[in-house]
Amino acid sequence: MQDPVSVAGLAPLAGLLVLLELAVGTTAAAFIVDLIARVGRGFVGTTAAICALLMGVEVAIAASIPSDTKLLGGGLSAGALSSLVHSSIGFMLMLAGYALFCAVGTDVARRVVGVATLAVGGAVVGKAAVAFGPPVGGVTEAVIAFAPATLVVGSTLAGMLLGHWYLVSPSLSFRPLRRAIDLVFTAVAIQAVVIGVVLWSASPGTRDQLLRGDYALPFWLLVVGAGIVFTTAVGVLTRYFARIRANQPATAMLYVLIISAAMGVVPAHLLFFVTGTPV
């Protein structure tokens, strides 16, 4: 029997997941910000087009993953992996169509297409959970690992793209940027609660391994330190710059924000693959 893939060998899986989470979460965050703060169809369409490009890379990585890859508790299902690739292609095409509707459709039409696109994106995240969850800990555990991460990385990338959108539309109110950063706070809070509940419900051995054992350093330094604490601190500073209408420093902080979020999410996925705990 083939041994499970090493941590280094798991990097393509983590990269695939982060790209998918970025595409789904960023599209969702842009849709929400436009809905509550009227940022405009140009930003939403451009964001959808960028996310379609991200999905193109995700599809290439997903198609290159060997079907005999072994994880913690067994091998990947070739059928589930193939379904993930096909649904990812479908989501990529939906994103391209959404970008087109943002350019030529009415507001009602583009929002209807936006809802449909988000529904497909959510289904693709579910497909990823079905593909990667059973060999690790289960589909539910995978959803717990992937869904909050989608909110975190997606809200940070949407915020960074919105910060740059002020170069295109300098007269735009700063309310959309403040709402985007509020989404980041909400996503990080959800992530923190999920991690707390997961640790509380984990077996004593797994909990000790994460808190004091072999995986304590990446868990505390990256998953908690970078992904929760530092991301929140940078978000507070970014929110301050948005409040005083200082776009350039706010955008600079948004770069830091997405980097810190990724530094928390990527190790969290790797820890999930090697421990079965959806942190």
Describe the protein's architecture and organization:
The protein has 279 residues and is an all-alpha fold. The protein has one domain (8-275): Formate dehydrogenase/DMSO reductase fold, CATH 1.20.1630. The chain is built from 9 helices and 2 strands; from the N terminus they run ααββααααααα. Strand 1 (70-71) and strand 2 form a beta hairpin. The model has no long low-confidence stretch (mean pLDDT 93).
Question: Ranges with pLDDT <50 over ≥5 residues?
Answer: none
Any idea what the CATH architecture is? Up-down Bundle
- From the alpha carbons, calculate the radius of gyration and give it in angstroms: 19 Å
CATH topology: Formate dehydrogenase/DMSO reductase fold
Count of strand segments: 2
**Count of helical regions:** 9
Biggest beta sheet attributes: 2 strands, antiparallel
Shape: globular
The class by helix and strand makeup works out as mainly alpha
From N to C, what is the helix and strand string?
Answer: HHEEHHHHHHH
Tell me the distance between the termini. Answer: 28 Å
Strand content: under 5%
The CATH class label is Mainly Alpha
Overall mean pLDDT: 93
In spatial order, strands of the major sheet run: 1-2
Structurally, how many domains make up the residues?
Answer: 1
Concise summary:
The protein is mostly helical and 279 residues long. It has helices at residues 11-37, 41-64, 78-104, 107-132, 139-168, 175-201, 204-211, 216-243, 247-275, and strands spanning 70-71, 74-75. Helix 8 packs antiparallel against helix 9.
Question: What's the arrangement of secondary structure elements?
Answer:
Blueprint: H1 11-37, H2 41-64, E1 70-71, E2 74-75, H3 78-104, H4 107-132, H5 139-168, H6 175-201, H7 204-211, H8 216-243, H9 247-275
Antiparallel strand pairs: 1-2
Helix pairs in contact: 1-2, 1-4, 1-5, 1-6, 1-9, 2-3, 3-4, 4-5, 5-6, 5-9, 6-8, 7-8, 8-9
